[in-house]
Amino acid sequence: xxxxxxxxxxxxxxxxxxxxxxxxxxxxxxxxxxxxxRFASLQSDVGQALLREHGLPTDELESVVLIEDGxxxxxxxxxxxxxADLGGPYRLLSPFxxxxxxxxxxxxxxxxxxxxxxxxxxxxxxxxxxxxxxxxLD
Length: 138
Known about the structure:
globular; single chain
């Protein structure tokens, strides 16, 4: 792959035109004080390459994807892992990992199916600026 990802970093793939998804990235950035996460949109060349590398569909852009330690996590599992890793009050989402994934993902899919109607959609992907630009792989 053209972009090298340091072994000690994890990657969050997100729908770059979705306001909710971009908001999630904006939420994670200041709380990731150790700068563990790198980011790429699902639509980007890097995002598409990472999806293929992990055997995930490249045409379904309805999920946050976490790639960490050679593993990939999607939907509710990705969100719960990220929240737990951020610590503090966000760690309170950790117990939800004990709910059946099918149930968690049904809720996740419901929100994903309505995200453009509820939160809107951008014409183009989020363009990072300033000191966070280096954390984006696109």
